[in-house]
Each structure stands twice: as C-alpha cells, then as structure tokens.
Amino acid sequence: MDHRLVAPEDVGNNFFLEFSSIGKPRAEEAVRLLCELNESVEGVANTSNIDDVLEKDPGFITSFTLIITHNLADNTLRKLSSLLWSNPVYPPLVIVRSAGFFADFTIQIHEHAGNLSPRMFGVRPARPLIPPVVDSHSETAPSLRIDNPFQELLERSRSFNFATMDPTDQGHVPYVYILVHAMDDWKAAHNGNLPSSYEEKKKFKEQIAKMKFKPDEENFEEAVAQAYRVWTPTRVPRDIQTLFEDEKCTGFPNAAGNGGGNSQFWALLRALHLFTAARGYLPLTASIPDMKADTKQYIELQGMYKRQADAERKEFVGLLREVVAQTGQRHVEGDGEVPGISDDAIVEFVKNAHGLKVLRGREWGVPRSEDIVPRIESKPRVRVELPTAQPAARCTHS
C-alpha cells in the first residue's frame, strides 16, 4: 500500500524500481517487479493513502496476519500501532526504518504463546490469529528417562545377559538397554544409589566398557558417551517451571482472558502443571534418537516408548478435561477428546512440552526506560571503578 508516485530519488534507493518507473504509482511498480522474482506469488498493489484507510476502513488493516511498514511518519505509525494494539487478536506489526545500508526493525506483538494453527485449538476466528508457541525448536532434547525407567523398559533391559550373548547380537543392542542394565547393576551394588562423584562416574563408564566383547562395538561407545543420562535427574526444565508460575496458569481460567487461541494454550499448560506436580516430570515423548541397533530392536524400543507415551498422554488428557470443565465449555460436533481443543493440538503440545515458550511484546512508542533503567541500577552486570587521580609530582629547587 503506497499512494505516492515514483520519484527520481526512489530509483536510487530502491533496487526494485527502474528509471522507467518514475512518475508511475510506486505500489504498482514495486509489485510488478517483485513478482518477477517468483511467479507463484501473487502481489496486489493498493494506491490508497494509509492515513485515509486508518480513518475510514481500519477493518481492512486488521484483516491481515502481519503488517510490515517502511519509513512511515511517526504520526501515522502511532495511529497504526494504537489500532493494532487495541485488540489481542489483531496482527503483529513490523516497523522497518532504513537509510542506505543502515536499518532498524521493531516488532510490536501481543502475547505470543506459536506455530500451531488456531483451528487445532478449536478456534474458528473471523481472521487468522497468532497462536501459542508450542514447537519452539528448543535446544533442550526431550528426556529418555534413563535415570528413572518405566517398568517395561526396565524389565526388557534386565532380560539381557551380556556375559553369554552372541558377540554379533551384542553389537546390535541399543545403548538405552545397555545403560539401564548397567545402572540397575550399579544400584544393586551401591545401596540403590546412582554414580555421583567423579570417581564413581568414571568407574561406571569403565563398567560399561567391560561389558563388550570387541573393542570397536559402536553401541557400547554410544552408551559410554550417553552415560551422563544415568546420573542426570529427569526434571521439569526451569523455563517450563517459570511458565507454571505465570498468573495465567496459576489463576486459570479467570486470569487467562480471551486472547484468541491463547486461552486454550493456558488450559493445556495448566493441565501440564497438574501432571508434573503428580509425577515430577513431563509426559514422555514417543520419539527416540538414532542409535546403533538392528532394525528389529530399534523398532521394539520405539514401540515401547510410544506405548508409554500414549499411556501418559491419556493421563494428561484426563487432567485436561478437568481443567477445561472449569471453563464451562461443552462438547460440540467436531470436537475430539476434550471440548474446544483438537486431538492433534494435544498430541503436538505433549510432544513439545519440553520447549514451550511465551513471548510478550509492547506497544510501539511506549518508553522502555521506565523499567530498564531501574533494572540496570538494581542489578548492574559490570561495575567499573576508575582509579583515584593522583596529584602531580612537584619539583622544588633550593
């Protein structure tokens, strides 16, 4: 959207304008040349004045999923940002300012708790919403729960007799079984305790190394490399605990508000809090990493984790039903196991429970010094102490 015509200075500043564009509508010329980069993209030029649209048809602006501006005047930006901030379901605003090779970007965004479709939360909005951040691509890998194995995994790991196994078969045992088996033996010999000191951890790794027949068995090398999983307790990540302490979780449903798809996110999070309070850990994830193993045993291990994950997901769903019941929402046609929240959303939420995020922005133009300055003053990261100036030396002559 741009109501201006292309001026000579525009051609010098904009790679996507030509000299032949001078005097023509800037929006139309930019769209024409940009669309040449990708024929599958459809571009539409609008030559309306943004100030007029904001005054006469603000609904046109709020109908989009994302608004990007470039070098808008401050007065216009204030109107636009105020409009988009007035309702949590209105789209985010990206403000770009550039001059030559210099540019800065500002993002105005409401509570953004993702990349799940709102319809996965049972929301059917008049316009697309920005839903909760569930798959945040966290660097924290989901736990295999080796330190606290579920019963089926423990029993299967105990069934291996590594001392009498065929060497070829032993070379294809997944490292998960090796670790759980070695951990079980260690606990039996150490009053139920896991390795804790440096020396104990070293001895535990040596114990694993002694179990192999050949020095180059890759699965045992993996077990030694992953041995830290034995003495690293499975806990709820601190970032997730912080979300549990949020007032929208502790005060659900009253504090969650009606932020589009986000109220469903807080319902899911509240149920997750109840689950972890009872269990001490997050629901198990069905996926397992690649590892040295034959196809049969890898599929067996994968199925074991899936069965346990499904059982814990059902427990989570039971808690979620209780949470959603507090909102008074009832089942309607098309609902899954829980009213207003699709089965796919539940599966994806549980799968990514270790990497949940909630982002909260602020309205453009709101001064930030009011909370940044006190924070810096109260918790300075670096304190610089300048040396006291020494008086200059004096020379006297008698």
Walk me through the structure:
This protein has helices at residues 8-13, 26-35, 50-56, 58-62, 74-85, 151-158, 167-170, 175-189, 198-210, 218-225, 228-231, 238-244, 247-250, 262-279, 295-325, 343-351, 369-378, and strands at 67-70, 93-99, 102-108. It is mainly α and 398 residues long. The protein folds into three domains: 8-108, NAD(P)-binding Rossmann-like Domain (Rossmann fold), CATH 3.40.50; 118-141 and 235-355, no CATH class; 151-231, no CATH class. Strand 1 (67-70), helix 5 (74-85) and strand 2 (93-99) form a beta-alpha-beta unit. The radius of gyration is 30 Å and the shape is elongated.
Radius of gyration equals 30 Å
Structural domain tally:
3
- Could you spell the SSE succession in H and E letters? HHHHEHEEHHHHHHHHHHHH
Helix share of residues?
40-55%
| Form type | elongated
Mean pLDDT: 84
Structural class: mainly alpha
Number of strand elements: 3
* Strand neighbour order, sheet with most strands: 1-2-3
Residue windows where pLDDT falls under 50 for at least 5 positions: 114-132, 391-398
Distance between the termini: 85 Å
Protein name: NEDD8-activating enzyme E1 regulatory subunit
Organism: Ceratobasidium theobromae
GO molecular function: ubiquitin-like modifier activating enzyme activity
